[in-house]
């Protein structure tokens, strides 16, 4: 009998869960996967698989002793804190503009390409409040992740991943708006603005995630 | 590092269910249905109980042919003692508060 799309999705999720679980937990991955064949409903199978993915992340995060060196943890936490500031930036600028605090808006605008916040007015007017809510939630989660990292708690990684996901969703939606393209179109190319800054802002979270993940893999392999 | 078990409602519900049939091997999906715990909650609990030596597991041949073997679980003697002690503790607490 041919597996339905939902059933195949459930198996794909389960394969992902198997990859996420620490190698020492391989029999548990197999145990969760085999149960799928004993679940009749396809939707129920997907629900089961989603739970197993969650369980695999829980187990993966438990396996990590994060980073042993407190200075390395502090440095990583500092890098995560840059994400807090980065995701709060647009919201703070918008709030200061909308509440008519031009001095704060001018000060924040000096950190943007063009050094003038007024060029962002069409984008600030067009950005709905819930995108700001996503960014603020991402900042809060990044902040808690940094705190957890300093305290050497394994929750740092899932919190970081959740924060990054929320922030990325907000960014993707914002970047798809016509006002974004209008504001971020420049007459002349600039290496720093067009390549260096996007590369750095992309690399920072990737490096943090890689450092946390590498630690997890070392822990689970030992 | 083995984590200490907490007395969460989910842990208590799983222990209580497994202690009702201490000699029977039970499957993950059935445990999930009977306790109402989602797989995302159930498996971390089962793993923890197993790490603590309170749960034993083994692969059982399927009841229906053509299906893969299943991982089955039951409490160890220590697990059963732990479940009974936890249940007695809860009963005492209930009696003291009523």
List its traits.
heterodimer, A: 222 residues, mainly alpha, 2 domains, 10 helices, 77% helix, 0% strand, B: 98 residues, alpha+beta, Arc Repressor Mutant, subunit A, 3-stranded antiparallel β-sheet, 55% helix, elongated
Structure write-up:
With 222 residues, chain A is mainly alpha-helical. Helix content of chain A is 77%, strand content 0%. Chain B has a single domain (9-91), classed as Arc Repressor Mutant, subunit A (Orthogonal Bundle), CATH 1.10.10.10. Chain B is 55% helix and 14% strand. Chain B has helices at 9-20, 28-35, 39-51, 77-97, and strands at 26-27, 55-60, 70-75. In chain B, helix 1 (9-20) packs across helix 4. Chain B is elongated and about 55 Å long. The model of chain B has no long low-confidence stretch (mean pLDDT 86). The chains are: A mainly alpha (222), B alpha+beta (98). Chain A binds chain B through residues 25, 27-28, 30-32, 34-35, 37-39, 47-55, 58-59, 62, 65, and chain B through 1, 3, 27-29, 32, 38-44, 46-47, 57, 62, 67-71.
Question: How would you concisely characterize the structure shown here?
Answer:
Chain A has 222 residues and is an all-alpha fold. Chain A has helices at residues 5-20, 26-36, 42-63, 70-98, 102-109, 121-126, 129-150, 156-175, 178-183, 191-221.
Reconstruct the topology from this structure.
The complex is a heterodimer of chains A (222) and B (98).
Chain A lengths: L4 H16 L5 H11 L5 H22 L6 H29 L3 H8 L11 H6 L2 H22 L5 H20 L2 H6 L7 H31 L1
Chain B lengths: L8 H12 L5 E2 H8 L3 H13 L3 E6 L9 E6 L1 H21 L1
Antiparallel strand pairs in B: 1-3, 2-3
Helix pairs in contact in B: 1-4
């Amino acid at each position: 009998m041919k597996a339905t799309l939902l059933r195949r999705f459930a198996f794909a999720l389960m394969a992902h869960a198997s990859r996420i679980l620490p190698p020492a937990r391989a029999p548990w991955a197999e145990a969760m996967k085999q149960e799928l064949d004993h679940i009749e409903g396809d939707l129920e199978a997907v629900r089961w698989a989603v739970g197993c993915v969650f369980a695999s992340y829980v187990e993966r995060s438990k396996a990590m002793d994060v980073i042993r060196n407190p200075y390395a943890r502090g440095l990583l936490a500092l890098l995560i804190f840059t994400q807090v500031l980065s995701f709060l930036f647009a919201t703070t600028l918008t709030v200061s503009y909308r509440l008519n605090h031009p001095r704060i808006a001018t000060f924040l605008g000096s950190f943007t390409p063009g050094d003038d916040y007024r060029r962002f007015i069409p984008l600030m007017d067009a950005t709905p409040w819930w995108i700001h809510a996503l960014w603020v939630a991402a900042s809060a989660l990044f902040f808690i992740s940094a705190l957890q990292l300093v305290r050497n708690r394994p929750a740092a990684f899932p919190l970081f991943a959740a924060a990054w996901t929320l922030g990325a969703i907000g960014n993707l939606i914002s970047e798809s708006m016509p006002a974004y393209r209008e504001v971020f179109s420049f007459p002349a190319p600039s290496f720093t603005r067009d390549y260096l800054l996007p590369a750095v802002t992309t690399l920072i979270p990737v490096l943090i995630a890689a450092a946390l993940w590498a630690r997890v893999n070392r822990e689970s392999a030992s | 590092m083995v984590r200490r078990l907490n007395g969460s409602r989910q842990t208590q519900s799983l222990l209580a269910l497994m202690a009702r049939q201490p000699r029977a091997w039970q499957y993950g999906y059935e445990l999930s249905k009977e306790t109402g715990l989602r797989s995302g909650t159930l498996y971390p609990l089962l793993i923890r109980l197993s790490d603590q030596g309170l749960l034993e597991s083994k692969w059982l041949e399927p009841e229906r042919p053509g299906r893969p073997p299943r991982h089955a679980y039951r409490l160890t003697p220590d697990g059963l003692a732990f479940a009974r002690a936890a249940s007695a503790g809860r009963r005492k607490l209930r009696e003291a508060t009523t």
